[in-house]
Amino acid sequence: MMDLQALQVIWFILYFVLIAGYAILDGFDLGVGALSLFAKDQRERGIHMDSIAPVWDGNEVWLLTAGGALFAAFPFVYATVFSGFYLALMLLLVALIWRAVSFEFRNKVHSPGWIRAWDWAFGLGSLLPPVLFGVAVGNILRGIPLTEKTEFAGTFLGLLNPYAVLVGVLALVMFLAHGAIYLVLKTDGDLQARMQRWAPGLWIGWVVLYFAATVASLFVSPFLFDGILKNPVFWILFPLMMACVVLIPVLLKSGRHMLAFIASSAAIATQIGLAALGLFPRLVPALNDPKLSLTIYNASSTQRTLTTMLMIALVGVPIVIGYTIFIYRVFKGKVRPGELYGNH
């Protein structure tokens, strides 16, 4: 049986791989949904919806898997975070539910008012989750107040601190940029041309906000940078992240849209990887007393549980990846309006 500490490190890595997978896959379709709020007309909003209709629910499997992995591998973290962020999580669930329902209900009644209402549900249900996810991540990076019993000791309003809100705005703009690049890849005509103009501007916003959040982290969470320059993993992730960020506008301008989307995906993954590297081995830093922080060593399940989960993951994760690849291959190419949910 594998050593407990090795299993704890493996599950820390796997958990953030699941988070990165979700951010990449559901990130672009949340971005597409939020961008639909700025569509010119009903037909265009339908194209936004059609572009993600075959894949959005599969993308959310990564969120469910990450939640399940957290519950099984690090139950104390799951209990603390889900109870402390309860109201925010309820808002998140409401947004995701309304967004999901909009796919099915939008064209059930052929009334402009009915369709407009579900378009708003789709757009706002896509806009809110990135902000809530970002605020949650910002609070984890900053640290949250914990009691000696690892219970959340703060308030909902306390979660809306300036640093967390900054990270929330960063997450929103990052997903908007990612979604715009996806629309450039999947559409044509006026919508593609407009996204081609918007994507570089959103990319600039992403870069500026990431820089601002990094500088803010130096003051708010200096522990994230302890010894990071001596870590060889940093010198893999950081240059890769910088290269991807620089390549995005170059690839968009040259018309290599698929490569631009891959670069955007890699930039998101490496930024999440750098955040995880700064946190390690912490999972939930304690704002009031670092000794109360939840780490992979004091918050994990037993050795037997982690081993069993790893065996299940070695079977299940390749299936999820294979299914994802299959779906994207089947539905590759440009969107044809009226083919799926958006316009009937």
Features:
single chain, 344 residues, mainly alpha, two-stranded antiparallel sheet, 2 strands, globular
Oligomer: single chain
* Overall number of domains: 1
- Which H/E pattern describes the elements? HHHHHHHHHHHHEEH
Query: Rg from C-alpha positions?
Result: 20 Å
The tally of beta strands, per DSSP, is 2
Largest sheet: 2 strands, antiparallel
Strand arrangement in the largest pleated sheet? 1-2
On the 0-100 scale, what is the average pLDDT? 91
Low-pLDDT segments? none
The general outline is globular
Structural class: mainly alpha
How many H/I helices? Answer: 13
User: How helical, in percent, are the residues?
Assistant: over 70%
State the end-to-end distance. 56 Å
**Residue share in β-strands:** under 5%
Write the layout of secondary structure elements.
Elements: H1 4-35, H2 42-52, H3 56-59, H4 61-73, H5 75-84, H6 86-105, H7 112-142, H8 156-159, H9 162-186, H10 189-220, H11 234-253, H12 257-279, E1 282-284, E2 294-295, H13 303-330
Antiparallel strand pairs: 1-2
Helix pairs in contact: 1-2, 1-4, 1-7, 1-9, 1-12, 1-13, 4-5, 4-13, 6-7, 7-9, 9-10, 9-12, 10-11, 11-12
